[in-house]
Amino acid sequence: MDLKKNPHGKRATAMSYSGIAVAFLLQHEAAAQVSYTDLDPDVALHNETLDIDLDGDGTTDLTIGEASYSDSFSAEVRLPIGNSIRVMATFSGILSPNVLDAGETIGLLNADFQADDGNGLLLAQHFSTNLGNWLNNDGYLGCRFVAGDGLAHYGWVEIGVSALADTVWVKSFGYEQMPGTEILAGEGSPAGIDGPSILRNLELSPNPAQDEITFSLPGSAKEPVRVTLLDPLGQVVRTVLPAPGERIRIDLGALPAGVYFVRAVAGKRIYSGKVNKL
Questions:
Q1: Same domain as 179, residue 204
Q2: Which of 84, 86, 74, 66 is nearest to 131 (CA)?
Q3: Which residues, 6+ apart, have CB-to-CB distance to 13 below 8 Å?
Q4: How many domains does one find in the chain?
Q5: Reported confidence tier of residue 256, pLDDT bands at 50, 70, 90
Q6: Which of 52, 98, 138, 203 could form a disulfide with 88 if both were Cys (CB 3.0 to 4.6 A apart)?
Q7: Strand-pair category, 225-230 with 62-69
């Protein structure tokens, strides 16, 4: 974990925030590993920036900042080349980072990732006209970033922005250690009251399997379900969106032999399993 807090607009010696964060590793068998970091106390930003290194590889993955100019205030996110963040257009048409609720999906199927064009992405602005999705709001940023292994990973950052956009609080962050594997906003948090419930093992049949596997999810008769099959590198090779309550089937026929991992999300519950493809 690496955090660097700097006065806004100044080149200053970075001040390390060692000792304010505790990292947890939550294992979803071998199919998913979520690394979670809690900032305690929350880091409050006023006219300064905070560099966040999600995977601890020594490289900044995103920078969150607040800038104050007389009677105007703004908060923004800056991203290095290759990284992006989920956005949503505001009523005025600008693209502002999306405010995600706990349990929302961050992954390959999200089409709203936006890179930084060099000007930053506006979280919130308070002036003659208020702009941005984050004014007087709190939630999760959904991130896609290049980790130390050179591959794309997904993660989240929990933040809050004041009603005047004069303070940004950075509370916690997490990322999926398996490349290309989706994560849920807030996933890995030990508090997790509003977050997902992890982990429940799947009973896959048959296992080993040659052509297909089937399984059911208990208690999901009324909930939408999303199922992904991942190869040993964490790449999604199959996605299934079954009707609620139906027995789930995944076709394995055209896949090479080897070990694959199944991940199913039903509401705020996450299930995982492992299958040996013959």
A1: no
A2: 74
A3: none
A4: 2
A5: very high
A6: 98
A7: unpaired
Q: Say how many CA atoms lie within 13 Å of 192 toward its Cβ.
A: 16
Query: Is 129 in contact with 166 (CB distance < 8 Å)?
Result: no
Angstrom distance (rounded) from CA 114 to CA 96? 9
Terminal-residue alpha carbon distance, the chain: 40
Q: Both 11 and 97 in a single domain? A: yes
pTM, two decimals, is 0.67
Q: Is residue 39 part of a domain?
A: yes
Please indicate, yes or no, whether residues 22 and 45 belong to a single structural domain of this protein.
yes
Taking Cα atoms as reference points, which of 152, 162, 147, 149 lies closest to residue 55? 147
Torsion of CA 107, 265, 103, 19, to 10 degrees: -80
- Residues in Cβ contact with 180 at an 8 Å cutoff, skipping those fewer than 6 apart: 108, 151, 152, 153, 230, 233, 234, 235, 236
CB burial of 222-233 (b: ≥16 within 10 Å; e: otherwise) equals eeebbbbbbbee
Residue 206 domain boundaries: 197-277
Checking if the pLDDT of 248 tops 90, the result is yes
| Amino acid (1-letter code) at residue 240 | V
- Sign, Cα dihedral of 148, 38, 50, 99: positive
What is d(CA 78, CA 90) in angstroms, rounded to the nearest whole number?
18
Percent of the chain topping pLDDT 70: 82
Q: Which residues contact 192 (CB under 8 A, 6 or more apart)?
A: 102, 186
DSSP 100: B
Listed residues 147, 162, 184: the one ending a domain = 184
